[in-house]
Write a structure and sequence with these properties.
This protein has about 80 residues and is α+β, with helices and mostly antiparallel strands. The protein is built from two helices and two strands. The protein is elongated.
Length: about 80
Amino acid sequence: MPEQTRIATAVSELARNAFRYAGGGSVDFTIEGSMTPQVLSIRVSDTGPGIANLDAVLSGQYQSSTGMGLGLSVRAD
């Protein structure tokens, strides 16, 4: 169950960002493989202008004027 919550939260945040900053987008879910183990692939895409100050965002130096200012964090488990 915790994995489902993490996936739902991540997809929700990405979709919210696509809507808020790019004006819309799409979310595609795919199950890859026909036998166990299968892989769930989720793609959130938009056609917006891209992320301004991307280098600063990725380096953790950018402070957003909206939201909490933390952006999306990437965590490898």
